[in-house]
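Handout, page 2. Input:
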Amino acid sequence: MIDNPDWFRPKRYGYGAGLPLKWQGWALVIGTIALIWGAVALFPDRPLIIVSVAVPVAIVCGLVAARTTRGGWRWRWGGKDQ
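Output:
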C-alpha cells in the first residue's frame, strides 16, 4: 500500500482539497459524479433514494480526498507552502 499518495493539491485559501494532480484523483472525481448522476437518472422521482446514494458517495470521496491531498487538509492563508 502507498504510504502518502498525492492525488490532490491543497487549496491555496481555506480548508480542503483543490484540483486533482494525478489520474487517480480525476478518476475519483469523475466516478463520484457518475454515481450521483446515475442515481438521479435512474430514480428521478425518488429523492430519498438519490440522497441515500449521494450522501455516502460524497462522504467516501471526501475522506479519500482528505487522505490523499498533498500536505493534508488544514487551513491555508495563501502562503508558499503549496
